[in-house]
Design brief:
The protein has two helices and five strands, in the order E-E-H-E-H-E-E. By secondary structure, it is an alpha+beta fold. It binds FE2/S2 (inorganic) cluster. The site of FE2/S2 (inorganic) cluster has 12 residues, from loops. It comes from Hymenobacter glaciei.
Length: 111
C-alpha cells in the first residue's frame, strides 16, 4: 500500500530545489541521499565515526532511532550543531515515515 511508503524530502540552503525520494526500511538517510545523487559527505563510510554526514531533521525526527552517545559526541564536533542535528548514516528509516531533512552546505576539500 502506498500509504506505508517512507519518503524523505531533502532541502538545501544554496537555492537548489527540494527533492523528495522514497526510502525502504533499513536504509539510512545517507543511503537515500547517495542513491539519488545528493552530495553528502561521509568520510567514515557511514559507521558513526565522523561528523561529515551531519544533517538537520526538520520533521519526522521522533520516529528515528534514538541518538547514541557516540553520535552525540560527533554532532558536537560538526559545524553549527542544532537541537535537530543528526548524523545521516545513523538515521535508519522504517516503513511509514515522512522525514524532512536539511542538508547543510557541503565543503569538499582536497579535490
Ligand atoms: S558518515 Fe561518518 S558518521 Fe556518518
Amino acid at each position: 500500500m502506498s500509504d506505508s511508503a517512507t519518503t524523505i524530502t531533502f532541502q538545501f540552503n544554496d537555492g537548489q530545489p527540494a527533492q523528495t525520494h522514497v526510502a525502504v526500511s533499513g536504509e539510512s538517510v545517507l543511503d537515500v541521499a547517495l542513491n539519488n545523487g545528493i552530495q553528502l559527505q561521509h568520510n567514515c563510510g557511514g559507521v558513526c565515526g565522523c561528523s561529515t554526514c551531519h544533517v538537520y531533521i526538520n520533521a519526522g525526527g521522533d520516529d528515528l532511532p534514538e541518538i547514541s552517545d557516540k553520535e552525540e559526541d560527533f554532532i558536537d564536533r560538526a559545524e553549527n550543531p542544532r537541537i535537530n542535528s543528526r548524523l545521516a548514516c545513523q538515521c535508519v528509516v522504517e516503513r511509514d515515515m515522512q522525514l524532512v531533512v536539511t542538508v547543510p552546505p557541503q565543503h569538499f576539500l582536497g579535490h
